[in-house]
15-hydroxyprostaglandin dehydrogenase (Knufia fluminis), 291 residues
Amino acid sequence: MATNGHTEPSQAPVAYITGGASGMGLSVVEDLVRKGWNVTIADMNEEAGQKIAERLGQQVVFIKIDVTDYDQQAKAFVETWSKWHRLDFVFANAVMPSFNLGIGDRIDFYAPAEERDDGAPAKPNTLVIDICLLGVVYSAYLALHYFRKNESKAGKFVSTSSMCGLYPGEGIPLYTAAKHGVVGITRALSKKLAMRKEPITVNCLCPGLVDTGLTPVLMAVAPPEYVTPHSTIVKAVTSFLDDDSKNGLAAECSGENIHYRVQQEFGDDKAAWIMGSHFEELFRQKYGKTA
């Protein structure tokens, strides 16, 4: 990737978007470009990504990566910083490659398993967790590093969870676990960064059924009124970019509606004591430092 030839930060804001070569990610890319942003698209689909970069012009660069590979993500962040010398927004939006329904598990968790020679079932395929959760963890870790390199020390991190991050998707338990994990890391990071008074916000999206090209079977049978349009996703992302007070939220995107879900209330005063007012002190006593 060519750099801008100097080390002065770009005058325009800069975004790094995984899964930006199609679907929701592409809609966000196009919206940001219209608003004058520079954007790195980090995606596995090289053909689509290159065509999009050519179509959208000098504001967009494409980098082929596998989000489950930390070194590939790190290299993409390095190249983004080297080109524009700032990073304002990271959208961790990589999804599973298209198969079956387009989303979900690579195994039937409930089916009787064939035994290995030792009598145990073979190791299950957990790629969905690697992409949908581990990839987000890597993106978040790298985002914090580069946000802190900005003169402002500020940044916005948004990841894509799912309604399966809020409700049980009983047919796809591994996908559901991964998406619950995305909501969990959103709430944990946002709370701690706020406690540290760092100007970094962390939020996530929890869309319902969105026509992304990865859900053809579902789209064929779902009534149109139950489909969430891309415009709702873009609206939710924009709300996080425009409002610094939005932090630690899971934006449930349902049709044209956005419901900002906060952490559920503590069950009782004991839970509030352990996970709320005294968590840092308990951590310090256990490990000799605050969390």
Q: What stands out?
A: The radius of gyration is 20 Å. The longest strand covers residues 200-207. The chain has one domain: 14-266.
